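Supplementary Methods, section 5.1.

A reviewer requested that the exact input to the structure prediction be made available. We therefore reproduce it here, unchanged from the version used in the analyses.
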Amino acid sequence: MITVLVADDHPVVRDALTRLLEAADDITVVAAAGTGQQAVEAALEHSPDVVLMDVEMPDMNGIAAAQALQEAESPAHVVMLTTFSDRERIFAALDAGALGYLLKDADPDEIVRGVRAAAR
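The structure derived from this sequence is encoded token-by-token as follows.
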């Protein structure tokens, strides 16, 4: 079973992602967070296999949260999920330790495949 933390500051998006991932028979969402700081704390507490994290969040953005998880030596694989596709953000996220980068307008199946690929 793949365990996932969903981090997004929009409750509707966070809930939709949770429902999408929970519909897969091999994925369980173990926690959800609405800020970057909450995402770091929840990831360290729950040790998910994958953190599906929005880039832009209050308190600490997703890139800084990914960096904090890397510095804390969290085993979680971070996949960024965002509406932004500019090269600067993509490279910043990857440099911060993110394993992948998905756009929010991706097909739902692509998001599930991205989580599974990150877990492998």
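The helical segments are 11-22, 36-46, 62-71, 87-95, 108-119. These observations are discussed further in the main text.
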